[in-house]
Amino acid sequence: MKIRHGLVVLLLLLGACAGENGGRMAVSGQIEGTAVAAGSLLGGRVAAVPVREGDRVAQGALLVRLESTEQEAHVAAALAQLAQAEALYSKLRNGARPETLRQSEAAALQAEEQYRMLERGSRVEQVEAARARAATLRAQLDKAGEDRDRMEQLRSEEVVSQQRLDDARHAFDAAASAFDAAQEELAMLTKGARVEEINMARAAHAQAQAVLEELEAGARYEDLLAAQAGVDAARADAALSQKALREMEIVSPLEGVIESLDVHPGDIVKPGPIAQITDPDDLEVVVYVSAALLGGLVVGEEVPFTADSFGEEIFTGRIIQVATVGEYTPRNLQTVEERVQQVFGIKLALDSSGGRLKAGMTVTAAFGPAGDGAP
Prior knowledge:
The chain has nine helices and 14 strands.
């Protein structure tokens, strides 16, 4: 943004003045400085203002710091979401761990063995062992029955105590229970597993095998795409939150002088510019010349000028723009006398000459044939 410090044209000397100065035209204007507004896109409460108006600051220097507690919390939450999304994507991309695969393989093998065992039925050795165990328990049951009957007879004759009779009865009941269990086991081994049990074992084996194959195959392509999209979204949220946090520090966009900054700690500022920085070394001036001189001017040409603050001392500017449209004249110029009144804006870039030239100073530039070297 260019800030004009006053009127652009203070004096325009045409006709007779040019003739009096060896054919040169002297025109005046005011120096302008380049100013840039600095501010925040978000606004907030001012926490610190480390600079003042008039200070010269470097590019990137801190001008105003806004309170950022809320933005810092948003950044922390966004980074946590990003870490979670990246972990999920890595898990799907890398597949199951070796330990998980081994556990799944073992479970599938165990389920298959159980199914095959039920499908084949009991072995002859198992049946014979169960029959022998049942016979042994039958003999123990008969012996316990004889002991119980004898104790009952002796008790009726009051030869033994009631406790010994009770013990004999308990021993008989225990032997009877053990024999019944052995009989059931022998019957199950003899008949084999039921159809329902075999079907259940087959289903368990199929399920365990499917889990193993899924782990070996890894994540589906669609799942990987969804996980990658989650990472991208989380990364974008983190970038937005970090950008919002950076808006809490208003810095100078260029090296220059603070022209305006009227905020204090505790103030609430709205989104938008709150400071203006001017580059004292980036100066220019706009002057106007007649159409008669326009044809001899080219961009890049050096033009001498003087400044009111330094008397007759001569400085040098450089043409950076020549207007293509005339100003301050009637719309239709029919005569030579009328066309002489037409003027065109010429923009000159100036060097500050070590800080001597400043925005707002009035200068006089000379255009046309060289005379005595002065404007």
